Amino acid sequence: MRQEKQRLRAQALARRDAMTEKARIEASLAVVDRCTDLVAVEPGSVVSGFLPIRTEIDIRPLMMALADRGARLCVPAIVEDRLRFRELLRGAPLEPQGFGTYAPAPDAAVLDPDVMLVPLAAFDRSGGRIGYGRGYYDAAIAELRDKGKAPRLIGVGFAVQEVDVVPTEPHDIPLHAIVTEREAILRDGP
Question: Which residues take part in binding substrate (predicted)?
């Protein structure tokens, strides 16, 4: 199963990498428009997003739109080989996290998300997700559930990252929705 996930990941990422920069920008903006209507937040709701790496979708405009609607934003930071969601404030310093991404400094508040905008390498229509192979998100979501939290999981990516079937293991947690530039795939309503 691990080899099949690696194969699907590599194929989906190759398709993503083959997109032109212009196509990625336009698709990112289309996803932002689609998600702005889909993601309901109350003032004070905690939304985790992510800062893009390599050719990943750029959801920073969406994150700022949600902040303007009163959401508290956070992004993942790798702390002792686990994800912690540090509050993201405009103008606050960021530090390198490895993998080409950044996160707020260690003195930023750690938050438990109500909604998680989840990056992905590949996805299927049933909510299956292949990440980058380290299991950080599945472990973080399981930890939140152990605390009694049930964050809404929304995968965001490009349509070219879709695969027929994501092989699943017991630790894999399905997404509630996936949003691409072409459509929103809802498993259980908005």
Answer: 51, 56
Those residues whose C-beta lies under 8 Å from the C-beta of residue 82, and which sit 6 or more positions away, are 136, 139, 140, 143
Beta strands of the chain (E only): which ranges?
A: 46-48, 72-79, 82-87, 94-98, 101-104, 115-118, 122-123, 129-130, 152-156, 177-179, 184-186
Annotated binding site for substrate: 51, 56
Using an 8 Å Cβ cutoff, are 35 and 179 in contact? yes
Q: What residues form the annotated binding site?
A: 5-9, 51, 56, 129-137
Annotated binding-site members for ATP: 5-9, 129-137
| Domain architecture of the chain: domains with CATH | 2-186 (3.40.50.10420)
Residue 49, token pair as written in the block: 């997003």
Q: What is the pLDDT of residues 52-111, one digit of tens each?
A: 999 999 999 999 999 999 999 999 999 998 999 999 999 999 999 877 889 999 999 999
pLDDT of residue 1: 86
